[in-house]
Fold:
Amino acid sequence: MTYFFILFAAVLIVVLSFVFYHPRKLEKEQGILKKIPDIQPSVAISSQSIHSITARAGMESSGFHGNEQKAPSFKKHNLLIVDDQYAIRMMLSELFIAQGMVVFEAANGDAALEICRNQVLDCILLDLKLPDMDGIEILREIRSLTVDVPVVLLTAYAAPEKMEDALTLGISHCFTKPFDIIELRVEIMRIINNHHSQADE
Structure:
């Protein structure tokens, strides 16, 4: 009997504590939550953060990056493609633009010489057969303007005497059409790099 009474009293105490204590605890927690403002972490930015972002944006726009050293600027190579076939010019132009070059195009000798007079070129790809001028004649005019710029010939067929004239005037290489585009790209990059290495010595 005594055991039953003790058990009954314990259950009664638990029930009473749940009825009276638990609601008060909930009210207290809700009161604390009401004092906390709703914050959306993905949107909320403190004034300090805004100031930091604004200051950083200002420094970046002015070219200042704290302790970072400014990346050295590099000169893009200028390449002239002289060919009366539009498809070849477009293909070669896309190829060398992808290498970071500035590419000029000319469909005839007059246009090519005009570019040579107005631009500092690092290499010229020259087709020997053009509608208005012979490739050797263009090469001769180029050499009267500059003896330094590397010239690479593109030709479907080159007569031996023309090749002798080209070698005398100074060419760096000759590709026969149809040519391997990867081989041509590698060779042009090598020629330009060698040209600049010799110029820097």
In short: Residues 17 and 126 are 98 Å apart (CA to CA).
